[in-house]
Each structure stands twice: as structure tokens, then as C-alpha cells.
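Example 3.2
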Amino acid sequence: MTPDPLALLASAFTAHAAAWPGEAEEARVFIELLGEGRHAFLRERLEGHFTASALLVSADGRRTLLTHHRKLDRWLQPGGHADGDMDLSRVALTEASEESGLPGLRVEGGIFDLDRHWIPERKGVPGHWHHDVRYIVRAGDDERFVVGEESHDLAWLEVETVAADATIDPSLRRMARKWLGRAAP
């Protein structure tokens, strides 16, 4: 019998809320969105939908690969739309692979972070919420990346630098701080 992906995600959100009480309200909102079933994983749900992203860390855990996002014109972690895929860890891994060109990436552990953020109206698509489920994706030994169509540039930055840089997206800084508090390089 195949496990129900929605039940698995609900359980993962509940476990994440228990581990990170500061994100319990986000987890509640994410669980509520799961009630819409597969529709919640489609970008056509214009009120908002699930996305997945990766804190892509180097093999030694000291650096993270960021993308200078072409559409949003800022440094962010790799990620993107679920487009119907209810396995959000797979979405995060796929997006990290596609956006970095790095071989041998792997997801480590379960949900690392939850973030609900507003995407402004763009090219006829109304403003909407991204319910972003974030995972740790670890690079292998080969750290030579390829800049793709979605990015102006990519760069390996020290996680400590990201955690302290007030010009970087606050949720990315939060993930960097969580990583520093959780991982021993």
C-alpha cells in the first residue's frame, strides 16, 4: 500500500512545528493548505501554492550556493514551483540540480524550514503566496556550478556571512543561522 503523500506531509509539518516552535503557526497554515489536495501544489491556484527550495550547502557544510534570481533580482536559495509534485523534497532537489548544474546532490533529513512569502503581481499573474518548504541539499566534491537561465549569477558564500548580512533576504539569513546552530562542520 502506497503511503498518502498528503498525510506524510501533514505529519512532517507537525513534527517540524514541534522541533521549531517559532514556525508552528506557519506549519498550521501549511497543513490547512494541504486540505485542498493536489490543487495546492499547482501554480494555477492563484491565491497561493506550495513551492520547495534548498539551502544548498557544500560538502563540508561551511558554504551555501546562492542564485542571483533573474526575476526577483536578489540573492536567494535555489527553489521553485511544485507543479503538481507532492514530494516536496524531490522538488527541492530537482530545483537545486537544475539551477546549479551540480552533480551528486542529495537531500539530508526532513523539512528544515517553512516560509510563507508574498510574490508581487508580474506579467498578468496576480500577487500570491508561496508556501515554501525548505530542505537541506548537500553538494558532493565537485562544486563547479553552471549559471542557468533563471539566474544572473551563482556564488558560494560562507554560511556565517549569509547569517550576518543584513542585505540578504531575512528568511535566508534565518536558515543560515539555523544551519550554524544545528550543524558542526
